[in-house]
Amino acid sequence: MKKILTLCLIGSYLSFLFNNTVFGEDPYLKSNSSKVSKKDIKQKSYYRFKGKTIKEIEIEIRPIFDPPPNWLYRTANRLKVPTRKSTVKQELLFKEGDDFDPFAFAETERLLRTLPFLRDIQMSVKPINEKEVKVIVSVQQTWTLIPQVSLSTEGGRRKVEGGLEESDLLGFGNRLEVLYKEEDNRTSIETVYDDRRIWGSNIDLLAAYFDRDDGERTIVSFGRPFRSLIDQESWKVNLDYSDFIGRLFKNGDERFIYRSKRTDTGIRYTISRGNPEINTRRY
């Protein structure tokens, strides 16, 4: 019989604890089940500002627990490296000096809701005068450092895993994951780094390195993804290199040992055509 002992320091548990038990259900997710979403209502309510100049953009970063009920929650707020305002600002589909566009405003809110290190996105518009408006973006942080530890045994075989994942590295919104595995007297270390926007650009980068006793594997992927319906093009370049020692068995006995080297590359380019507010097609 398989016996598995898994410590409760896994991402799904902590994510549930912090985002569901503490905060409750996200009203935006709940609204998606209705025929008329909150986003549609909000977008229509801001049409009166269409064409006015965005004079100022104010960004508010709220702590994980706001307000913290006791010392434990206050400690969590202090331990979390705050998300930087520049990290949120680079995700906006508009900037100061642009004409206000209700659709870009609604798409920005949707985009911010997809970020794993933010929750409870609140956006509003306030008139400054007859020709200018102020956009206010308020977001709440989440706990992003997730430890992973597990131990399992079956038929005399033992499997051990342990690692850490940080999805808001130093407040820049980047992901770093390190995982150690030990199984069948073989060990491996997996490292993954995901940068949504290299140096604040629209280019994302994913780099992964897997170091095992019997070989290694390196994956590099970079490109410009579709982040919103407004984006008109997307491209991506992939590189996957592996070098492993393989073994072939017959009747439980090892018969052959071989070395396998493989390099895979790929390039993809996609364009988007049509009115994003009505119908969009990607080729």
As a percent range, the share of strand residues is: over 45%
Distance between the termini: 51 Å
In this structure, how is the largest beta sheet organized? 10 strands, antiparallel
Helix content: 10-25%
Uncertain ranges: 1-36
Average the pLDDT over all residues and give the rounded result.
Answer: 83
Structure characterization notes:
The chain has helices spanning 11-21, 27-31, 38-45, 71-79, 85-89, 102-113; strands at 3-6, 53-62, 118-127, 132-141, 145-154, 157-169, 174-183, 186-195, 204-212, 215-224, 233-250, 253-273, 281-282. It has 2 domains: 26-141, Roll (Ubiquitin-like (UB roll)); 145-282. It is 18% helix and 48% strand. It has 6 helices and 13 strands. It has 283 residues and is of the alpha+beta class.
Provide a short characterization of the protein structure.
The protein has helices at residues 11-21, 27-31, 38-45, 71-79, 85-89, 102-113, and strands spanning 3-6, 53-62, 118-127, 132-141, 145-154, 157-169, 174-183, 186-195, 204-212, 215-224, 233-250, 253-273, 281-282.
Notable characteristics:
283 residues; alpha+beta; Ubiquitin-like (UB roll); 2 domains; 10-stranded antiparallel sheet; 3-stranded mixed sheet; 13 strands; 18% helix; 48% strand; disordered N terminus
What's the structural blueprint in terms of helices and strands?
Layout (H helix, E strand, L loop, with lengths): L2 E4 L4 H11 L5 H5 L6 H8 L7 E10 L8 H9 L5 H5 L12 H12 L4 E10 L4 E10 L3 E10 L2 E13 L4 E10 L2 E10 L8 E9 L2 E10 L8 E18 L2 E21 L7 E2 L1
Parallel strand pairs: 2-4
Antiparallel strand pairs: 1-5, 3-4, 5-6, 6-7, 7-8, 8-9, 9-10, 10-11, 11-12, 12-13
Helix pairs in contact: 3-6
